[in-house]
Amino acid sequence: MNAVRAVVALLTKSQLYRSLIRYGAPNDNRGRMLLILNNVFLHLHPVKLHPMGLRIRHTFCLGGITAFLFAILTVTGVLLMFYYVPDTGRAYDDMKDLAFAVPFGMFLRNLHRWSAHAMVLTVILHMARVFFTGAYRPPREFNWVVGVMLLVLTLLLSYTGYLLPWDQLAFWAVTVGTNMGAAAPVVGHNGPFAVAAVDNDIRFALIGGTEIGQNALLRFYVLHCVALPLVAVVLMGVHFWRVRKDGGLARPL
Predict the structure, then answer these.
(1) CB 174, CB 163: distance < 8 Å
(2) Which of 13-22, 74-83, 183-192, 221-230 has the lowest mean pLDDT?
(3) CA distance linking residue 106 with residue 132, whole number of Å
(4) Could you give the CA distance from residue 241 to residue 75 in angstroms, rounded to a whole number?
(5) Helix or strand or coil: residue 200?
(6) Sequence-ordered list of residues with C-beta below 8 angstroms from that of 74, at least 6 positions apart, any chain
(7) What gap in Å lies between CA 140 and CA 153, rounded to an integer?
(8) What structural domains does the chain harbor?
(9) What span, in angstroms and rounded, lies between the C-alpha atoms of 21 and 80?
(10) Residue 23: per-residue pLDDT
(11) What is the pLDDT of residues 68-116, one digit of tens each?
């Protein structure tokens, strides 16, 4: 036991340990504050919390659960990219290989799919909790807008991933959705006050042509795997940061 303690003491006093962890386990308020402010992960949280913020029933941890589901989606999505090619001649076969040929492929895909469904649900519940508890009021109105943007991004992530299996359900679901875009006011060529033609409206921009094919699959793949996740990560960082800057979790006066 003494030898273990000596090794631990030697490691904690080494330059490598001190360069990674500048503050150990503090025993005073100043040390605790410095530990939070100088940690890349902990500094997103406020230095002090009101006792009400520690109650599960106050927030039901819906924001944290949503962030955790996004992390699961990121990891499983990266793993799925090793076995998927966004090509109309291979996409459906890749999905079949994941289901029947790749070890744990079906588990991986279902984990990604059900996590996506759960994330949509928890984001909606989180927004409802914030609304009904009045947590959108000043000085938190800016963070409410960021949350609404994250809700839209969550729905877009779910929708863009719908086309990737390239089966009949995905094809016709995206056909209906993009046709709705064509009927949108101003930006859709079939919508009221249309200023765009069939070859330059919002539907054309989404699917990369006038018909759903290879260009549409590639664009949805890039949106789903690169563009939308990057925007979501940035907005999530701003969202967490503003919770701290606005005084922590909202609570009754």
Answers:
(1) yes
(2) 13-22
(3) 39
(4) 23
(5) coil
(6) 229
(7) 20
(8) 1-44 (no CATH), 52-245 (1.20.810.10)
(9) 34
(10) 67
(11) 999 999 999 999 999 999 999 999 999 999 999 999 999 999 999 999 9
